[in-house]
Structure formats: C-alpha cells, structure tokens
Specification:
7-stranded parallel β-sheet, 11 strands, 4-stranded mixed β-sheet, Rossmann fold, single chain, 403 residues, binds NADPH dihydro-nicotinamide-adenine-dinucleotide phosphate
Length: 403
Amino acid sequence: MKSISVLGSTGSIGTQTLEIVDDFPDLFNVAALTAGRNLDLLIKQIQKYSPDLVAVADDSLLPDLKDRLNRLSKDQRPKSEPILLSGLDGLNEAASWKHTDLVVTGIVGCAGLMPTLSAIRAGKDIALANKETLIAAGPVVLPELKASGSRLLPADSEHSAIFQCLQGTPLAKNATLSTGVATPGLKAIQLTASGGAFRDWSLSEMKNVTVEKATSHPNWNMGKKITVDSATLMNKGLEVIEAHYLFGIDYDHIEIVIHPQSIIHSMIELSDSSVLAQMGWPDMKLPILYCMSWPERIKTNWRKLNLSEVGKLTFYKPDSSKYPCMELAYSAGRLGGTMPAVLNAANEEVVEQFLKERIHFLEIPKLIEKTCEAHKSDINSEPKLDDILLVDSWAREFVRTVI
Ligand code: NDP
C-alpha cells in the first residue's frame, strides 16, 4: 500500500490521480490533499478519502473549510478528522507529510515550486506533473534532488513516454534517476505535439481566436492554462526545457514533431540509431499510474489501444511562424540561468490576462518576447532560489505594466 499526497487535488491531474486510487484501493491510499479555492470539491474528496492532512492555498478560506466540515452530519463525516492547514506552510506540510510515500504535483504554475522543493527536501518520490517547477528552477531543483535522493518521476505524458522508453538503457555511471545526467545511449528526443486547438487554422484565421476556442483541446481534457499553452505550442516549448533538465540532453537534440492523433507520446533515438516510441490513447491516467507504480507495471482493464481503429498516424514539422512561442522557449532554454524562469512567469501572466480577455491570443508571444528581451542583460547564469523567485515576480510585474 502506497500513501499518496495529491497537490492540486481539485484540478485535472489531481482528480485523475484520485480516479486511479478509486481503481486500485488495495494499492494506494490518500495521505494528504491540497487545493486552491474549490472547497466544494475538496470537501467531497475529504469525505471520500479521509486524508490525514488537508491544506488550502488561500488562508482566507480555512475558516470556511473548518466550518463546513464541522457542520457535516455524523454519517457524512470522514472516517477520521484531518489536520487542516492553509497557505504555503500548509502546502509544504502536505508535500513533506511523514506518512506520504509519493507526492503527485498537480498544482498549476510556479505556485508549485515551493511545495515541490519541500517534497524533494523530505526525500519523497515525486510524480511531477507541475512542469513549471523544473522549467523555472531547474538549476536549483537538480542539486536538491541529488542531495536528498528524492526521485523525480515524470507524469507529463511526453516525458513519461521518454522515461518508459529509457527503461533498460543503462544510466551513466554514478547517475541517479532524473538528476540531469545523460544516459550514454540516448542520442536524441522527439517530442510529439497534438498541435493544439488551432493546428488546422491559418495564421490569418487565428485573428479570430476566442478564449472559448483556445480552452478546448481536440485530444486532451486538461486545465485551462495548459490548454492555452497547447494552442500556442508554448506547452511544447516548456516541455523541451523540462526534457533538457530531466534527461540531461542538450537542446540541439530535442525535436518537436506534430502528431495530430496523439497516439505516440514521444520517441527516443539511441546511439545505434534505433528509435523507440511509447504509444497509448491520449489519457493522462496511464503516465500518472506509471509514476505511482514504477518500476512495477499494474494490470488494468483500461481501453486497449487498437491501431486498426486508429487507422493512420501522421507527422509533420511545426510551423515556427505560426507558433513563435516554441522558438522563444528554445532560446530561453539555451540562454539558461534565470531566463527560463522569466519565460515561464511571463507566459503564466500573459495567459492569465488572455483568459481575462484583456489581450488577444496573437499578443501572447509578443509580450513574452518583450519580457525575455528586457531580461537579457540581467541573466544570472547560476541562480539561487531567491534569484528565481525575484525574476519570477519581476517578469509578472513587467507584463502587467506593459499591458
Ligand atoms: P488545473 O487548473 O486543472 O488544476 C490546478 C490545481 O492547482 C487545482 O487543484 C487548483 O486548485 C490548484 N491551484 C491553482 N492555483 C494554486 C495556487 N496558487 N496554489 C496552490 N494550488 C493552486 O491544472 P492541470 O491539472 O491541468 O495542471 C496541473 C499541472 O500539471 C500544470 O503544471 C500542468 O502543466 C501539468 N500537466 C497537466 C496535464 C493535464 O492533462 N491536465 C498534462 C501534463 C502536465 P483550485 O481548482 O481548487 O483552485
């Protein structure tokens, strides 16, 4: 029985993780839950899973949470009373909770950074969905992983595919899992991308993008921020940086290929020229489950992949004039240091402004580029945590000022 802390339990990753717990009640239980603002769903989850500890990100919601739990009738109450916490301290406590074996990081954005670091410092195994943590703070996270022995298991479907393909390819001498040390046999990575909501739209048609259209993905059912990131292909750019830090591979050997069917979740090329791919229906439960069971495989009765039903698998090169965010991410990744943190924070802020309908979709890359340009002369190539947090706030403020 593995005990799981689910950070961001009310989101897309969080709820899918809890569905896996439902599917395998003899293998997993829930030790801790955290949420942002969705108390209605959080309370239902507390009733169902009886976690030891629960934290809400917003301090002002804690009294309401306590009150609503106290008002539950005897037969509606969870089996045991959870410890109730709030704010960053609460999230950190949930991430490092003593009874937790594995922490699933489903918080969206750089808000996941500090709780993920807490889990790392407590030596926990981590199912990393919250990619923004590694993108913003790779140079800080990797040494912390090495020092604590915590293992970072990729829950993002593309990185899970790479990770799965790498099983059986020996790691470098003295390398530990996911500490940015290249696998000697790994030559290149091909990240597949669905192409997002507008893959079949021309650049001129994209002038008509609305928030509603940008938040509906053709293949995956995800939170709003990552769905917009998929439509701009910033998500793929962020995944390039994530792959660089996770697998210790340089940017020249990470390629993006559009694969509209989302059946191949990514591919690796090995030094002998063999290419390995991992396939499955587009369903995040599989990569999350693999993090939860690794290195074992759990038998499921989930829908079997049937290639005759899929029919054809197609691939083409992404158009960088249509998707400038992709190149911005490569460029920030190559510059390194604090630049990926600036790119990430600018993107988070700009997407939020787009979702509030304060800017148009096509302004997203322009504002991110402007922010990165403004930071170019100030890049810190060996940032500490405080430097990352500082540039993160600076970039958000810069975007708001420009808008
Ligand atoms: P959602 O928006 O669906 O969920 C986000 C979760 O984070 C919610 O539980 C939300 O709480 C919580 N949250 C929001 N803001 C804060 C905050 N400031 N502090 C603490 N908690 C907060 O996002 P997704 O599940 O789609 O994505 C989560 C992460 O996983 C992202 O980093 C994304 O890139 C990554 N990912 C997601 C995939 C997917 O299929 N969804 C695929 C691959 C990666 P509440 O709702 O209660 O306010």
